[in-house]
Design brief:
The chain contains 6 helices and 8 strands. The chain has helices at about 15-25, 60-65, 105-125, 140-155, 170-185, 205-215; strands at about 5-10, 30-35, 45-50, 85-90, 90-95, 125-135, 160-165, 195. It has an 8-stranded mixed beta sheet, sandwiched between helices. The longest helix is centred in the middle third of the chain and has 17 residues, at about 105-125.
């Protein structure tokens, strides 16, 4: 796959933007936190999940999407989320995965939730898409590549969402994006569009909402 295939997602047109706004204007609630596969809720609806390295901004992004500041618990301490957290939104599940990579937790605890993460990603039939969050300041790391390989083998489509795009300078972001494109070109499960977001500034939120609304309507 060519790195040139991975374009930046454009702002949605009015109908798509309205569909995304309408979806996320509906009530979203925390359903449960899961620490083992047998605790997963019934696979009775489409779900999308958010994956990424510890402290990449998953919880903050979910809060920005839903417009509920305290829905997903955000923390400045890497590795605080140690469960698969399920949230309801209309006929969807939004899923916040435990951060992978560095975490301030005992080694055995880290290993346990990494196993849970991999089991979920490779075995959840109703999982439609993984939104793989990459920090715009750091780009793709080896641990991200490992998750991408897992998603390839599980035939689960993933789409990269760049977080914190307000932090690097434009020239630095362009360089990081080129590296991301080159990394994605190695992975057949990668969706050929990258979404740029900043939860702090609100940029890219309507684009991501519209993408999820399209999945929900398919």
């Amino acid at each position: 796959m060519s790195a040139n295939l991975f374009s930046i997602a454009e702002e949605p047109d009015t109908p798509d933007a309205e569909a995304g706004r309408h979806l996320f204007a509906q009530n979203s609630e925390f359903l449960k936190g899961v620490v083992a596969m047998d605790g997963l809720p019934p696979a009775d609806r489409l779900e999308v999940c958010f994956a990424g390295r510890s402290n990449v901004g998953k919880s903050t992004l979910i809060n920005a999407l839903t417009g509920r500041k305290g829905l997903a618990r955000a923390s400045n301490t890497p590795g605080r989320t140690q469960e698969i957290n399920f949230f309801t939104l209309a006929d969807l599940y939004l899923v916040d995965l435990p951060g992978y990579g560095y975490a301030k937790a005992p080694v055995k605890v880290v290993e346990k939730w990494q196993r849970l993460l991999k089991a979920y990603l490779s075995g959840r039939a109703t999982l439609r898409r993984v939104f793989l969050l990459i920090d715009s300041r750091h780009g793709v790391k080896e641990v991200d590549q490992e998750i991408m390989k897992l998603l390839n083998s599980a035939a689960v489509t993933f789409q990269v969402v760049m977080t914190k795009t307000d932090k690097p300078k434009s020239s630095e972001l362009d360089k990081i994006l080129q590296g991301v494109r080159e990394a994605l070109a190695k992975h057949p499960a990668a969706y050929p569009e990258i979404i740029l977001t900043s939860s702090e500034k609100g940029s890219g939120i309507s684009t991501l909402r519209a993408a999820i609304a399209r999945l929900a309507s398919e």
